[in-house]
């Protein structure tokens, strides 16, 4: 099997090693994604925009969240704005086992998750699935929201879909800190 430049061979399979190179850093807004090539053997297409979610509510929330972020968190409490700015707009460092100070940045997915929680709970005051569905589902939102069992809709519940290894524990810690200071102030 002949190997071409930028390709690796492993157990008889060919793959384009350039496809493993990141398009953006983990803390940056996901500004591009790859899409399968039109024909086998061609490199994947790079699409210069965020990959849309198959979940309508997620896409609609992302648009609202971008406006919220761009407005410097308009409508959020001073406490929330202070925390968000501290977490995401301030330089941080961690000390390695060797005693070196290394830069630390939260991943963008961690930022987006805590921003979403704050935006929904504090700014929009959305605390039920029917409210979330009614606001962000899209075309059939009202009809879909009416189909939610009221017994399942009594308590605020938030869930975030985050990839394995993307820092769900860190997101939970941010949510705990926000909840504590939000209730304290």
Summarize the structure.
With 185 residues, this protein is of the alpha+beta class. The chain has two domains: 7-47, no CATH class; 56-184, no CATH class.
Description of the structure:
With 185 residues, the chain is an alpha+beta fold. The protein folds into two domains: 41 residues, no CATH class; 129 residues, no CATH class. Helix content is 40%, strand content 12%. The strands form three sheets. A two-stranded antiparallel sheet has the order 1-2. It has a two-stranded antiparallel sheet with strand order 3-4. It has a two-stranded antiparallel ribbon with strand order 5-6. Helix 1 packs across helix 3 and helix 3 runs parallel beside helix 6. The radius of gyration is 21 Å and the shape is globular. The termini are far apart. The mean pLDDT is 87.
Give a quick set of tags describing it.
single chain; 185 residues; alpha+beta; two-stranded antiparallel sheet; globular
